[in-house]
Amino acid sequence: MLKPLLASLLTLSVAAPASAATLDANQAQARDIFSHLIAFKTEIGQGQVPVMAKYLADQFRAAGFPDSDIHIIPHGETVAMVVRYRGDGSGGKPIGLMAHMDVVTAKPEDWQRDPFTLVEENGYFYGRGTEDIKSGVTVLAANFIRLKKEHFVPTRDLVIIYTGDEETSQDTMEDLVKNHRDLVDVEYALNTDAGGGELSESGKPLVFGVQTAEKAYASFELTTHNAGGHSSLPRKDNAIYELADALKKVQAYQFPVMWNDTTIASFKALGATTQGKLGEAMRAFAKDPHDEAAAAVLADEPSEVGKTRTTCVATLLRGGHADNALPQSATATINCRIFPGVAIDTVQKALQDQVGSKVEVKLVGKAIASDASPLRPDVMAAVTKAVHAIRPGVAITPIQESGATDGLYFRAVGIPTYGVNGMFMKTSDAFAHGLNERVPVKGFYDDLAYWHVLLTTVAGKSGTK
């Protein structure tokens, strides 16, 4: 019994160093940072984002970044962090580099592995935040450290912008834009939290998307009111029935079809590789966005409808106060993803027009709208060079995402923002926000190399110290 056990332990002890030995110094350091970051429980309410920011600050200081270029900005229980890599200024305004330090809550009892321990298994890194988006935090930090070691002098400042509550309120990003604009006043930003490469289920690289537009997030409450009364004395007007009628009107309503340079280019590229009726609709819409039949096909596909119009859908419902009383009020929450360039007020008015004056329509919380970023040739060329360094020949296309990131805040104040995550993944491997979140090990190290090429390309190389 003992000999097989010792043999097994010996095999394990040899296997781990052998795997680590295949990594170069930069990869090994990135993996170490990644492991530390996953261990921080940066969920809302845990107070761990400031602790993680301190760890990162220590890494930057050890690499030679002065305290004057490392800023931690407190905001409630969380923080934002801004780190500046000084250039010689010959290339113009700084470039921003974005990621967020917080993660969605993970319940360890539901996971197959500890969500706050980086586990490498079967070609994947598992852990909360591996995909969204501590991998992005890691590759930016690791590349700053590497470039310092290489004595790289950029032609312009590079500014890392780490936020602390992207998954919840996004207050730290709003605070940076409003109250610390001097720290984040960049010409444009590159966001690790959007875009990326798609692999087929066999592992073949299909396409790389550069996110140049994203939809605004806004929730509205629809509320009906009534005097109520005893349930044994029903009346024709009823708050719940009236709300139900209003919801059916919202369900039936379709916002106007819309498009921009990004969505047209995206449908053209994706249509070339998408089979069947959906691929035909993509190609037809790219050729003529007035094609109603093509728009109708896209509207029936959940993954595509958001690229052609504003969407609003009922997500929450409450009403009444007792089972033997007529309801005095009923409320439904309608969540909208608003097409770039459309004002929040315009959507609210459209909802109000549909449900009528007897139903109150109120914005819940805050909402921010933004336009699509221009398709800058210099950015697209740099991204293409970086992608082809890890995946030669892959097609590059701009994309518009139906979700929302901190990039909204930059676009809203006129700072073009581009989602350029360098990770290539299969659709079936996407578990962000879900159980057993993971990324491919190869994808992580490729992402690290990709960002090195991208940063040295966009900032140029003016010399060495």
UniProtKB/TrEMBL annotation:
Residues 213-357 form the Peptidase M20 dimerisation domain. One of its GO terms (molecular function) is metal ion binding. This is Peptidase M20 dimerisation domain-containing protein. Belongs to the peptidase M20A family. InterPro entries: ArgE/DapE_CS, Bact_exopeptidase_dim_dom, Pept_M20A, Peptidase_M20, Peptidase_M20_dimer. Residues 1-20 form the signal peptide. NCBIfam families: PRK09133.1.
